[in-house]
Design brief:
There is one protein chain. By secondary structure, the protein is an alpha+beta fold. The chain is about 10% helix and about 25% strand. It has 1 helix and 12 strands. The strands form 2 sheets. Strands 1, 2, 3, 4, 9, 10, 11 and 12 form an 8-stranded antiparallel β-sheet that branches.
Length: about 200
């Protein structure tokens, strides 16, 4: 019996099956798979790892400007004193708001710490130590009637936040807001993206 079927295939030689044309729509299917994979990756990236946000208001002048676009880091973030954070829609309506909204502030203290404000000296104390705050645009003065308190004990699992533009910021000093639960933290601001002249680390 002839054994022609057992002849080895020459290198680079394709079988009839390998030479068969691709099925109609195969290229479209591959493209859709790649596209959907990119969409899923982008959703995970911008919801669990990092995201973009826009500064709304002047409470962080001159560190951040109204309308500035920032990249914030979320994955594994643990708040630290001095960080600039973006907080999700807070559970209260502050003066001038028609609905709860995200806010950008600086972390002054974390859970278990105490905060004291001396408006005469223009100083903020955390655990009895005055903060060095070269980022403040002007001397801090005593704010309105909802922000007269000067001593706080920050609960565990919360942060005390203030805007750098202290005289024009509604923050944890306000009795309506106070220390904020860390569950409301979206992430830490790490990079200013736009406008281009503001590009750089926050």
């Amino acid at each position: 019996m002839d054994e022609y079927n057992s002849l080895p295939q020459e290198p680079g030689e394709e079988t009839e099956e390998e030479q068969a044309p691709r099925r109609p729509g195969a290229d479209l299917y591959d493209w859709l798979q790649m596209f959907l994979g990119c969409v899923v990756a982008a959703v995970v990236l911008f919801n669990c790892v990092a995201r973009l946000t826009r500064v709304d208001g002047d409470s962080m002048n001159n560190t951040l400007q109204d309308g500035e676009i920032m990249l914030i880091w979320s994955l594994g973030y643990i708040p630290k004193q001095g960080d600039i954070v973006v907080l999700n829609k807070t559970p209260v309506l502050l003066t001038g708001w028609t609905e709860p909204r995200a806010i950008v502030k600086r972390v002054i203290a974390t859970g278990g710490q105490t905060v004291d404000i001396d408006y005469v000296a223009g100083l903020v104390y955390v655990d009895g130590q005055p903060l060095d705050e070269p980022y403040l645009p002007e001397e801090m003065y005593l704010p309105g009637p909802t922000m007269q308190q000067t001593h706080w004990e920050v609960p565990e699992g919360s942060i005390f936040v203030m805007g750098d533009n202290r005289n024009h910021s509604t923050d944890s000093r306000d009795i309506q807001l106070g220390p904020i639960d860390t569950d409301y933290i979206l992430g830490r601001a790490v990079l200013a993206l736009w406008p281009s002249e503001r590009f750089g680390a926050v």
